[in-house]
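Need the bound structure for uridine-diphosphate-N-acetylglucosamine, inputs here:
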Amino acid sequence: MSANRPAAVVVLAAGEGTRMKSATPKVLHSLCGRSLVGHVVAASRELDPEHLVVVVGHAREQVTAHLAEIDPGTRTAVQHEQNGTGHAVRMGLEELAGGSDAAPVEGTVVVVCGDTPLLTGETLRRLAGAHASDGNAVTVLTAQVPDSTGYGRIVRDPAGGAVTAIVEHKDATEAQRAITEINSGVFAFDGRLLSEALGKVRTDNSQGEEYLTDVLGILRESGHRVGAAVAADHREILGINNRVQLAEARRLLNERLLRDAMLSGVTVVDPASTWVDVTVTFEPDAVVHPGTQLHGATHLAARAEVGPGCTLTDTVVGEGARVINAVADGALIGPDASVGPYAYLRPGTKLGRKAKAGTYVEMKAADIGEGTKIPHLSYVGDATIGDYTNIGAASVFVNYDGEHKHHTTVGSHCKTGSDNMFVAPVTVGDGAYTAAGSVITKDVPPGALAVARGQQRNIEGWVARKRPGSAAAQAAAATRPESDGER
Ligand code: UD1
Ligand code: CA
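Answer from helper R.:
Posting the output first, comments after.
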C-alpha cells in the first residue's frame, strides 16, 4: 500500500460530449486500445485508492456496462442531470458515503475528469504526494499551455504567488483570459473539507452550473491551504472535447508508447505509420516496419520482425519470426517461423518453430508443427499438421459440410500434392504422399501414395475435326512435318 493512498478517486464521466457529434458517449471513444475513461481508470488505479467511483449520467447503462467489463472493482454514482462538475463530485461523494446525510468521506479524495486520457499514474502520484507533504486542503494539478482557450484559468496572488481562485473561460475577464496557467481538472482534496465546501458552491455563473473549481476560492476564503502542482508536460492534461483532439491525443499517446519501446531496444522504422495499443509488449531487438498496427495482447519476442503492412491483434510473434503484409488475430507464431506476404491467420492458429504460412494463405484453428510449410494459395481450417510436412500449392482443408465443422489431421514428413482437397474428417498418416489434384476423402495410411483423381484421356486430332481452320488447329498442324501427312 502506498503512503499517500487516497480514500477515493472520483472520475467525472456524466457529460454527453456534444462536441464529439456521436451516438457513442464521449468517454467510450477509444485510443490505443482503451476507452477515454478506461485510460483514466487505469491511471487512477496506480494510486491504489480504497474506492474508485465513476460518476455516470449520459448513456449511463452503456458506460456502466463498459466499466463492469474493464474494471469490475469500480463503483458508479448516477448524476441524473449534468448540473456541473461540482454537482457531479457531490453525487460521487454521496455514493461513497451512502447517502446525502451520511458522514463525509475521511481522507484524501482525488478528482479526475473522464476525458483526459493522457494523464499518467506518475503525475497523479506526484499530485497526491505534494498534497500530503504540503498539508493542503486542496491541491490542483495545473499546466502552462500554449493556448489556454476553453480552460479554467489559475488566478494567483500577485504578492506571494499562492492560488486564489480558478476562473472558467466563459466567466473570465480579458486580463484573466491572458493567463496561460490552466486547471487540468485534476485535484486532491481533503474529503471532509471538500464536502463542506461543495455545500456552499453557487450557480451564479455564465453556465448556471455548480463549478467544482469554485471550491478552491471557498476553501481559501475560510482560511485553508490551497496548493498547486504544475504538470511537467502540459500535453498530459489534454482534455478531449472533439474528434480533432481525439486524433491529437491518439498521436501523442502512440508516440509515447513507441518511444518507450524504442528506448527499451525495439527498432521502429517509421513511428509515424506504426500504431500500437497500450497492452502491446516487446522484447529487445524486435523490429517493426512501416504501416503496421499492433493491437491487444500482441507480443513481439526478441528479433521478431513484423511488417511492412501488418495488422496483428492478440498475436504472439516468436523469437526471430518474420511476418510480412499479414493480418493475424489470436495467432501464436513460433520462433523463426515465416508468415506472408499476404497471409491471414485467424484465431487458434499455431505455427511451430520454423513453420511457414506463405503467400495467400489463410488459416484458422490450425496447429502446424515444426518446420512444416504451407507456402502458397491455401486454406487450412480446423487442422493438425505434424512436423516437416509440405502442403502443396492451392490446397484446401474442406472443413465445413454446410452444417458442422470437421477436423483434418496430417502427419509428419508428408508431401501432399498441389491442388489437394482434404475433405474432413480425414487423416493422412506420417510420411504419406498425395498426388496433385487429389480430393482426399479417405484416410491415407502412413507411407502410402494417395491418388484420387480422374485418369487423363487424350483424344487425338479433336481440334482439327471440331475446330477446323481455327488458330488452334493451324498451330497444331504447324507442329507436324509437311511430308508426314495424316496419321
Ligand atoms: C473543466 C473545468 C476547467 C478545466 C477543464 C480541463 C469546471 C467547471 N471546469 O472544463 O476548469 O480547465 O475541465 O479539461 O470544472 N461532467 C460531469 N457532470 C457535469 C459536468 C461535467 O460528469 O455535470 C464531467 C464531463 O463528463 C467531463 C468532465 O466532467 O468528463 C469535465 O467536463 P467538461 O464539460 O468537459 O468541462 P470543461 O468545460 O472542459
Ligand atoms: Ca473537458
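Comments: The radius of gyration is 33 Å. DSSP finds ten helices and 37 strands in the chain.
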